[in-house]
Amino acid sequence: MPKHKKKGPLSLQGAVKKQLFKSGVELPLKVLHRDPAAAGRGLPAYLHPSSLQQLLHDGAAAEPQAQEQQSSGSSAAGSSALFLQLASGSDCVLHARACADVAPGSIQLDEVQQANLRLCAGEVYKFSVFQHGSSAAGADVAAASSEEEDQQQQQQQQQAEQSMQEAADDSNEEMEDAAAAVDMPFELTDLDCEVRLLHAQQQQQQQAVQVDAVALTRAFCKQCCWRVLAVNEYVVAEIPGLPPLLLRITAANTLTAEEQQEALGYHCFRGLLTPDTTVYMTTALSQQQQQQQQQQPGDVADSAAVTATQQQLLQLSVADANPNSAALQQQQQQQQHDAAAHVTKVTPPVQSRVAAAAAGVQLLNAVSRAAAPPATNVVHVYTNDGEWFPVKKKLLRPCIALTKAVRDSGDSAPTVHVDVDTLTFDRLLIFLEAQALQRQLPGFAIHYLDDLQRAGEQLGLRSLQEYCAHLKGIRQAALGVYSFADVQRANASGKVWLLLDGMVLDVGRWLPEHPGGAAIIPAQSLNCDCSRFFEMYHASRESFLYIAEFYIGELVPEDLPHVPLGGKQPPSSDFLMQLREYTAFRQPMLAQLAQRAPVTHLGAGKARSAAA
């Protein structure tokens, strides 16, 4: 299977902390491989009826089907069906059915389903029932092919909704976010599929396979209608007389182009395919051509150079596939013929020179998206490191420094340059979106707050400045002043408090993520000044950025001489200088300590009373 970068709100990159509409049941199932050559392609996932019962809390809907299969000896999947997702979260959603031939505690998946969910046969994973939570979720059971299926699936729908409600009741905050998500439609208005050959390297033909886009769309919709599809999901489609085709979902929208222009916070990555969904079949190169049409004028020369280079690679790949170069001549003649007939011949991206020549697909009767006019409701924002953000004007309204660009009513989108780096501006947009949609504001890490506050000053975004100050105030109020005895007692109770140049750091929650392992810090660095160890093991100053996350206060100055030194020698002066440059956030606490009388700090009075 081709490899593509994992992306989406629920994938490994950019994963959310909480899932919405999560079922209360998480069932571990062992993945079994299903050979598509023997069972056929495009089939749902199969699991034992007893597993289906456990997922739905009540097996009444699935039990009659299981009894019917067992009595008849049939190996076909029953009519009981539901949608499953990985309990840990997944972009792709499985369409699953009960089958008595599958071993209890197992789920049978083909190679495409395994690739979509990044699963390995023979391993055990936890699954849960998928529920979107909107009225559109009922459509996944409304298209059953018989009245009996309708009744059974509606029962499952009600049971899953009940489970969803029970799980959601555990958190008022989660329910508020879920209510916001319900407002967004779930039925897909349009969908883009990238077409290529399933086994491109096994094909020996020199000419591209001609595929009727209308027939392919019909086969795809027949197979996937009323199923949940996600961006970067693979689907295998078969047309009689042609090799199997691999379709990758490259775009999915639940709003029309006009609605997207007005919507804020619209980030669609999956939805329900319905008979009303418009499906566009494309190939990799045709998608690239569409993207070039939407590029900024300054990027045209670069894109033209890239296109010319790719064309040369494609020609070389054909020559490599046939050393006699007859294929190259035939390819050139075919290109000329296609150009005269206004037919676009497209080849998927170059995986290797030979594979690129073998993986050609020529779409006939394909309908392309209408070219959208340049958007005028956005501002093109360029950051100080050269990145470009097209941001909707209504989202930037709170930024006073950008008022002129926001109010621009010209025929083209205005352009502004801001003295803010890319990552900080991205976080600023997250804040603006949450503020505009009246959602919970993001809890930024403390080491981002200074940069965000400066960005707020640059753009005249007072609400961000005040929010950063608020977060700093909360953090400052939580800081404390500790004696050495306080640190020792905390470590004796099972905590992991470190002393680093007078700072008190609580790293217990981070130990499982420590690149050097969870054991080395408690073994070496407790109840001593660990500055030397920190210098020895952290050649990169990147680790300095994490200190603010663990900082809980300062050690009283009177106890500093009594703290044993970790390591055989003290840290270097150069290290301490750099460390203090990266930990300027501790200055308010140091200033507070300088104004305090020695006898008033925490623990000191107790220690002196005990000594007396």
From TrEMBL:
<keyword id="KW-0479">Metal-binding</keyword>
<dbReference type="GO" id="GO:0020037">
    <property type="term" value="F:heme binding"/>
</dbReference>
<dbReference type="GO" id="GO:0016020">
    <property type="term" value="C:membrane"/>
</dbReference>
<keyword id="KW-0408">Iron</keyword>
<feature type="region of interest" description="Disordered">
    <location>
        <begin position="140"/>
        <end position="178"/>
    </location>
</feature>
<comment type="similarity">
    <text>Belongs to the cytochrome b5 family.</text>
</comment>
<dbReference type="GO" id="GO:0046872">
    <property type="term" value="F:metal ion binding"/>
</dbReference>
<feature type="compositionally biased region" description="Low complexity">
    <location>
        <begin position="152"/>
        <end position="166"/>
    </location>
</feature>
<feature type="compositionally biased region" description="Acidic residues">
    <location>
        <begin position="167"/>
        <end position="177"/>
    </location>
</feature>
<protein>
    <recommendedName>
        <fullName>Cytochrome b5 heme-binding domain-containing protein</fullName>
    </recommendedName>
</protein>
<dbReference type="InterPro" id="IPR050668">
    <property type="entry name" value="Cytochrome_b5"/>
</dbReference>
<feature type="domain" description="Cytochrome b5 heme-binding">
    <location>
        <begin position="479"/>
        <end position="556"/>
    </location>
</feature>
<dbReference type="Pfam" id="PF00173">
    <property type="entry name" value="Cyt-b5"/>
</dbReference>
<dbReference type="InterPro" id="IPR036400">
    <property type="entry name" value="Cyt_B5-like_heme/steroid_sf"/>
</dbReference>
<keyword id="KW-0349">Heme</keyword>
<dbReference type="InterPro" id="IPR001199">
    <property type="entry name" value="Cyt_B5-like_heme/steroid-bd"/>
</dbReference>
<feature type="region of interest" description="Disordered">
    <location>
        <begin position="324"/>
        <end position="346"/>
    </location>
</feature>
